[in-house]
Amino acid sequence: MLEPAHQADVVIVGAGVAGLSAALQLTGAGVSTLVVEAAPDVGGRMTTERVDGFRLDRLGQLLSTSYPELRRTPGLDALELRPFSPGVLVHNEGRLQRSWEPRASLRTGPPAGRSARGAFTAARALASAPRMRSRTARPLLGGPLDQARLGAAFARLAATSVDRVLARPELPALDALLSRGLPSRTVETFLRPLLSALLCDPELRTSSLCADLALRGYARGRLCVPAGGAQNLPRALAAALPPGTVRTGVKAVDISTTSVRTADHGELGCRAVVLATGARQAAELLPGLRLPSFHPVTVLHHTARHSPLAEPALVLDADRSGPVAHTAVLSEIDPSRAPAGRPLITSVVLGPPPSEREVRAQLARLYGTSTADWDLLAVHHDPEAVPAMPAPHDLRRAVRILNGLYVCGDHRDTSTVQGALFSGRRAAGAVLRDLGVGVASAEEGVLVAA
């Protein structure tokens, strides 16, 4: 049984990034908080396992340095982010070429490093590093004019406020892209594969508002991953909480506005409950809560004798020649994820697990090298990896169910790490208002950026 001292003003069910974000806002306001998590560790879907010295993410989610919550959430100021090289490499018509790159003047926030100073040092080093030669003579985006149009469109989007982005007409993302006057080649060879990677939605039925926020974030920042594995992000959040706030191995089986009943640790009394689990678990604990559809994701990790790409780049397959949507040599981006001299190649399939033969054949085409001697380290499949956001999508889904009961998670905002963090902030703000505590830093409202 949990001791009475472990009961708190607020009990949060779930120690993913949303629940931990809410806990940080509440404890920062002086409210006693207890976070219970059924799993043996924090992180939810942002987990990392160790295999033969490799650190393997289970979900393979991409972050952006432009996410505001990465800068203003307590505990994340010291998190080291490892950036991809600017732009992406796109495989199209059997060739690999670098895409349009966001201008440095459009980027916001530190792209990498343990501190802002270290971040900008790393960014300068990347900018001056030698680039891989393109394996095609044909311009990917149809020539200088098309590239200039795309750059101008990104510049306008980067300078547009979030409120103005959200005031646009809402369509499925692909329909919106095709209606904006950009060449269809630009859409199919760059924007579609890029958004598929960012939204985990290969058909681009996602709301155009969410897609525009994702593109705005891409133009204003740098794609990145947490150093040492995705789980280091939720662990950094947990480490910033007062000792004893998080209790793992405690499974909630029933909730109300004043208590949480657990499977093996009795009943926890409180003044408010925040439900911060995944969407399906939330619907099971709170019948009547809408369950979204999901995008399935499969992540495959390989190693080889030599790195197939000596550059920290994200590789997209615009040809859609196989099941892999995007791939990267993650050890080039974050050397701490692999033993010295052994590359880590991580590939993401937006669907069920494919055959290993199909994957190897496609990766051989993408990287231009044989994959016959590659070793498969792990395959992780999650049929409910990413909550879908089809149009119309409510980015202001209520976090307050009733006085004393609140819900947060990426299924309440956008299906991104930023959305999960911000939903935790919104839920904490609603709790503090109902408890009569000042909430100067816990604003309600729409997501600041995707």
C-alpha geometry = globular
Give the rounded overall mean pLDDT.
88
Uncertain runs are 1-6, 104-139, 440-450
In whole angstroms, the N-to-C terminal distance is 41 Å
User: Largest sheet, described in full?
Assistant: 7 strands, mixed
Biggest sheet strand line-up: 8-7-16-17-18-15-19
The helix tally amounts to 13
Kindly provide the radius of gyration, computed on alpha-carbon positions and rounded to a whole number of angstroms. 22 Å
Structural class: alpha+beta
Helix content: 25-40%
Explain what the structure shows.
This protein is an alpha+beta fold and 450 residues long. 30% of the residues lie in helices and 21% in strands. It is built from 13 helices and 21 strands. It has helices at 17-28, 68-72, 116-128, 144-159, 162-166, 173-178, 184-199, 208-220, 232-239, 279-285, 330-333, 356-367, 417-435; strands at 10-13, 33-37, 48-51, 54-57, 63-64, 81-83, 89-92, 95-98, 223-226, 246-248, 252-255, 259-262, 267-269, 272-275, 294-303, 315-317, 324-329, 344-349, 375-387, 400-402, 405-407. Strands 8-7-16-17-18-15-19 form a seven-stranded mixed sheet, with helices on both faces. Strands 10-2-1-14-21-20 form a six-stranded mixed sheet, with helices on one face. The chain has a three-stranded antiparallel sheet with strand order 5-9-6, with no helix packed on it. Helix 1 runs parallel beside helix 9 (232-239) and helix 1 packs parallel to helix 13 (417-435). The chain is globular and about 60 Å long. The two termini are 41 Å apart. Residues 1-6, 104-139 and 440-450 have low confidence and may be disordered.
